[in-house]
């Protein structure tokens, strides 16, 4: 589903590479934790998957497409197969829960009947039924992140990318979010999650890829956060 | 593509940038008005040139009893003098073949009556007071000096009028106006361009959350650009329509009501020319809005 072949990325105006000779293969339906300190290259990895940047060297295949060869007008089409969740939720504050989720479908031109049917379904899946008409600031952090996950998942993407989705949440709430991501993973969606949260990684016992200074230093199929644990 | 979302986006965008949008509209309005005026001034010059330059270049007015010209002696020009004058003109190398037309008093009077048909002055003038003349067409309108000096002073010649000496200053003034209007229009259009790209930059900044999410979920570039494009096109259209209205009002009050009444001799720009100018103005306005919008949105909404 995602394959990095000798991928290096150096940002313009910087001498040090953010990623260096990274080789990673993530299969369809996998759940992968991306761990490492700040600046280790986790965010760069995710941005390259989303094709927000091009790699400086190497090939990146996402859902069967070589991102370096993808014409820029086809990028939006490619992104519709990827859902994205962030630490800061990124909800539109003047839209209700249902509107926030529906927005993702509206802007890619889905018919209204489809939107009316899909949005309640996905809100139920994330456990927000009954809160459709709330505004984001009337919700708790965990609930806001559920809205963001609903928005990322409403178009049934093949890949879900989560960049520290529990970074702003307390441990109890984080567990709920992880259960939700796990449930989404069980529907066959590939989940790639960058995180600093030691206890979550240790509990879930999923594949762990550790980055350090742009290198992959560890790739374990049922890993924990760090060696010291 | 869902039209109602786009339209509601457009409404929100216009409201958010109302003062900037008004500034764009006013700038486009004024600049296109000037541009249109310059186009019309050009048409006017062409019309006058077509009317006068090509037809008749030099008028040789012949003596009447009352003329005080150098070749007159207080009497009407004689037939003998007329033949002599015609011969001099016809044999001059600068005269176009068959380029000499004699205008009798009657013809001059008819022409006069036609030009001033609504004016009380007609009743005070008689045919006898009209002046006979030769109208001479030149091979090359630029070379008139030679013929003028050959004819002037011949017995029976009152005055020689080269129309260019009257028209040239007018054309120069019109040309100057045209250049001035074009320069001012150009400067204002540049200002409009910058305003549009600034407005879009502000609007893109104000909507950066939405735009970020749109990009993330895979909205097409066109979908993201469309509200900006519609906003710019709408502003340009309103500005262009106001400018067209201004031009029509100007043509109606200045040309149709005043100039045509006062200077009947000339052809004046009318509805056809104004319509043509407004079409060009609308096209220029739209291009001016669409091109910078595309460039700016491409820059600020990069995938």
TrEMBL record, chain A:
PROSITE patterns: ABC_TRANSPORTER_1 (PS00211), ABC_TRANSPORTER_2 (PS50893). It is found in: Cell membrane. One of its GO terms (molecular function) is transmembrane transporter activity. It is a peripheral membrane protein. One of its GO terms (cellular component) is plasma membrane. Residues 2-228 form the ABC transporter domain. It comes from the Bacteria. SUPFAM superfamilies: P-loop containing nucleoside triphosphate hydrolases (SSF52540). One of its GO terms (biological process) is cell division. InterPro entries: AAA+_ATPase, ABC_transporter-like_ATP-bd, ABC_transporter-like_CS, ABC_transpr_LolD-like, Cell_div_FtsE, P-loop_NTPase. Keywords: ATP-binding, Cell cycle, Cell division, Cell membrane, Membrane, Nucleotide-binding. Part of the ABC transporter FtsEX involved in cellular division. Has ATPase activity. Belongs to the ABC transporter superfamily. Homodimer. Forms a membrane-associated complex with FtsX. This is Cell division ATP-binding protein FtsE. It comes from Kribbella turkmenica.
UniProtKB/TrEMBL annotation, chain B:
Coiled coil: none annotated. Keywords: Cell cycle, Cell division, Cell membrane, Membrane, Transmembrane, Transmembrane helix. It is a multi-pass membrane protein. Residues 183-302 form the ABC3 transporter permease C-terminal domain. It is found in: Cell membrane. Signal peptide: none annotated. The chain crosses the membrane at residues 20-41, 181-205, 226-255, 275-295. InterPro entries: ABC3_permease_C, FtsX, FtsX_actino, FtsX_ECD. GO terms for cellular component: plasma membrane. Residues 56-160 form the FtsX extracellular domain. It comes from the Bacteria. NCBIfam families: FtsX_actino. PANTHER family: CELL DIVISION PROTEIN FTSX. Part of the ABC transporter FtsEX involved in cellular division. Forms a membrane-associated complex with FtsE. This is Cell division protein FtsX. It comes from Kribbella turkmenica.
């Amino acid at each position: 589903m995602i394959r990095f072949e000798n991928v290096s990325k150096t940002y313009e105006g910087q001498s040090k590479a953010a990623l260096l000779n990274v080789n990673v293969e993530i299969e369809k339906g996998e759940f992968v934790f991306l761990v490492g300190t700040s600046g280790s290259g986790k965010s760069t990895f995710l941005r390259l998957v989303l094709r927000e940047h091009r790699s400086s060297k190497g090939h990146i295949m996402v859902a069967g497409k070589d991102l370096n060869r993808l014409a820029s007008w086809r990028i939006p089409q490619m992104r519709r197969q990827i859902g994205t969740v962030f630490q800061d939720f990124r909800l539109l504050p003047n839209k209700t829960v249902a509107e926030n989720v529906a927005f993702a479908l509206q802007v890619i031109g889905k018919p209204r009947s489809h939107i009316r049917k899909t949005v309640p379904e996905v809100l139920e899946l994330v456990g927000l039924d009954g809160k459709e008409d709330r505004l984001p600031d009337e919700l708790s952090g965990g609930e806001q992140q559920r809205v963001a996950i609903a928005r990322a998942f409403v178009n049934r993407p093949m890949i879900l990318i989560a960049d520290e989705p529990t970074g702003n949440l307390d441990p109890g709430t984080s567990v709920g979010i992880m259960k939700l991501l796990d449930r989404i993973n069980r529907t066959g969606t590939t989940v790639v999650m960058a995180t600093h949260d030691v206890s979550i990684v240790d509990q879930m016992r999923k594949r762990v890829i550790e980055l350090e200074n742009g290198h992959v230093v560890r790739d374990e199929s049922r890993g924990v956060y760090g060696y010291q644990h | 593509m869902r039209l109602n979302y786009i339209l509601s986006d457009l409404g929100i965008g216009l409201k958010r940038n109302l003062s900037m949008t008004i500034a764009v509209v006013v700038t486009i309005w004024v600049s296109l008005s000037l541009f249109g005026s310059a186009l019309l001034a050009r048409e006017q010059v062409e019309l006058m040139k077509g009317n006068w330059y090509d037809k008749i270049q030099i008028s040789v007015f012949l003596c009447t009893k009352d003329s005080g010209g150098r070749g007159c002696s207080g009497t009407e020009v004689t037939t003998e003098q007329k033949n002599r004058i015609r011969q001099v003109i016809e044999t001059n190398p600068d005269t176009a073949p068959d380029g000499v037309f004699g205008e009798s008093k009657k013809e001059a009077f008819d022409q006069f009556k036609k030009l001033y048909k609504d004016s009380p002055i007609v009743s005070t003038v008689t045919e006898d007071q009209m002046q006979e003349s030769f109208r001479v067409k030149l091979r090359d309108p630029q070379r008139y000096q030679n013929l003028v000096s050959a004819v002037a002073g011949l017995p029976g010649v009152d005055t020689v009028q080269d129309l260019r000496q009257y028209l040239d200053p007018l054309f120069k003034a019109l040309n100057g106006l045209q250049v001035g209007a074009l320069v001012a229009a150009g400067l204002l259009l540049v200002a409009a361009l910058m305003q549009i790209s600034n407005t879009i930059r502000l609007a893109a900044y104000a909507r950066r959350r939405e735009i970020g999410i749109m990009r993330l979920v895979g909205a097409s570039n066109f979908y993201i650009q469309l509200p900006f494009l519609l906003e710019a096109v709408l502003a340009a259209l309103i500005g262009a329509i106001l400018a067209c209205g201004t031009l029509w009002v100007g043509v109606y009050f200045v040309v149709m009501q005043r100039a045509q009444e006062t200077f009947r001799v000339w052809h004046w720009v009318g509805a056809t020319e104004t319509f043509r100018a407004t079409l060009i103005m609308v096209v220029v306005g739209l291009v001016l809005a669409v091109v910078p919008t595309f460039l700016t949105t491409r820059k600020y909404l990069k995938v």
